[in-house]
Design goal:
There is one protein chain. α4 runs antiparallel to α5. By secondary structure, this protein is an all-alpha fold. The longest helix is centred in the middle third of the chain and has 27 residues. Helix content is 68%, strand content 0%. It is built from nine helices and no strands.
């Protein structure tokens, strides 16, 4: 669990750096969309951003910021898989992880997605940009990060306290002492 929390913290630090460069990110998307002759439809998926970067980006600053977005998405996707293996969870944590997996799916259409308060990412866009072009692409990361933070909080509060308490006091579960000893198959002697 500590590894998950530490990884999430590192990704959040990268996201804060990315967030400070949102204007650069939007301008990079504008330039690559113009180059791709794709200025009408909204930016709606991670694959679309990757395609702009790979095939229509001729500026190192644009390439760097688009790569940063795709990299953060990939790191969040890996963390999502790691969270599944750390703890089986309950319906709440499974629902949060499922939401993250859907949002981080390469071909998921997030054009209608909008981050709300306390995230101001959409507020920095003009009305036209927010409504029609970039509202979803700037909203996907804060929404996924919020869901992952919620997963960590819920897991620590409701799913892991019993494990933590048992490790702290070295308490041995009495049910384990009542189990019958394991006998290999084919061995009938006791």
């Amino acid at each position: 669990m500590n590894e998950v929390v530490e990884t999430l913290r590192k990704i959040e630090e990268k996201y804060k750096l990315f967030q400070q460069q949102q204007f650069t990110f939007i301008r990079a998307l504008e330039r690559t969309r113009e180059e791709a002759h794709d200025s009408i439809r909204p930016v709606s998926s991670i694959v679309q951003v990757q395609c702009y970067k790979d095939h229509h980006c001729y500026n190192s600053t644009d390439s760097r910021i688009l790569s940063m977005f795709v990299s953060i998405c990939n790191e969040l996707r890996c963390l999502c898989q790691r969270m599944e293996t750390v703890h089986a969870g309950d319906s709440v944590t499974k629902g949060l992880l499922e939401k993250c997996k859907v949002l981080l799916n390469d071909s998921n259409d997030f054009s209608a997605l909008r981050a709300t308060y306390p995230h101001g990412v959409v507020n920095y866009l003009s009305l036209e940009e927010a409504r029609h072009r970039y509202g979803g692409v700037v909203s996907v990361l804060p929404i996924v990060l919020d869901s992952m933070r919620e997963w960590v909080t819920h897991s620590k509060r409701y799913l892991l306290p019993n494990e933590r308490q048992c490790q702290r006091c070295k308490y041995e579960d009495p049910r384990l002492g009542k189990k019958a000893p394991w006998i290999p198959p084919g061995n009938t002697s006791t």
